[in-house]
């Protein structure tokens, strides 16, 4: 029996790349629109590069859309697992999405302003999962 591998059942896309500075305050940053065509779920992974003493925190959320134009907040059953805040102590986080919408975006909202002059760089990827058609 052949082992099924995750490589052929997933796809990866860049969801967000942003450098935050102290001047960014509490302005939310919305990532790229991720087209879920052919998939039914996505796992968003976020890695943030912090200076050792920065107290900035970011709350992760998702927005979704049928047409790629009008986005609404994804809530309730669309979200997989609680999302912890991204911070210097927890600089790798994830948030999942299951839904019937075609597009989804990651949103990072600062909930505590940066305290240093160094930038905080976010890199987030969407790992698309649950393909509609899978290799046998």
Q: What are the salient characteristics of this protein?
A:
Jelly Rolls, 10 strands, single chain, 5-stranded antiparallel beta sheet, mainly beta, 49% strand, 136 residues
Can you describe what's shown?
This protein is mainly β. It has one domain: Sandwich (Jelly Rolls), CATH 2.60.120.380. Helices cover 0% and strands 49% of the residues. A 5-stranded antiparallel sheet has the order 1-10-4-8-7, with no helix packed on it. Strands 2, 3, 5, 6 and 9 form a 5-stranded antiparallel sheet that branches. It is globular. The two termini are 12 Å apart. The mean pLDDT is 84.
Task: Lay out the secondary structure.
Layout: E1 11-20, E2 29-30, E3 34-35, E4 39-49, E5 57-65, E6 72-73, E7 79-80, E8 92-98, E9 103-112, E10 120-131
Antiparallel strand pairs: 1-10, 2-9, 3-9, 4-8, 4-10, 5-6, 5-9, 7-8
CATH topology tier name: Jelly Rolls
Distance between the termini: 12 Å
Helix content: under 10%
Derived structural class: mainly beta
Strand fraction band? over 45%
Number of strands: 10
CATH architecture group name: Sandwich
Continuous helix count: 0
Helix-strand pattern: EEEEEEEEEE
Q: What is shown here, in short?
A:
The protein is mostly beta strands. Helix content is 0%, strand content 49%.
């Amino acid at each position: 029996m052949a082992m099924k591998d995750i490589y052929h059942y997933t796809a990866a896309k860049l969801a967000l790349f942003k450098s935050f500075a102290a001047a960014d305050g509490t302005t939310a940053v919305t990532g790229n629109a991720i087209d879920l065509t052919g998939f039914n779920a996505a796992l968003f992974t976020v890695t943030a590069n912090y200076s050792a003493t920065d107290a900035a925190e970011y709350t992760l959320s998702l927005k979704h859309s049928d047409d790629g134009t009008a986005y609404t907040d994804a809530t309730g059953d669309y979200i997989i697992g609680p999302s912890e805040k991204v911070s210097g102590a927890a600089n790798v986080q994830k948030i999942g999405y299951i839904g019937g919408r075609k597009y989804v975006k990651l949103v990072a909202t600062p909930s505590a302003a940066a305290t240093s002059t160094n930038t905080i760089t976010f890199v987030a990827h969407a790992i698309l999962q649950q393909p509609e058609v899978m290799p046998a």
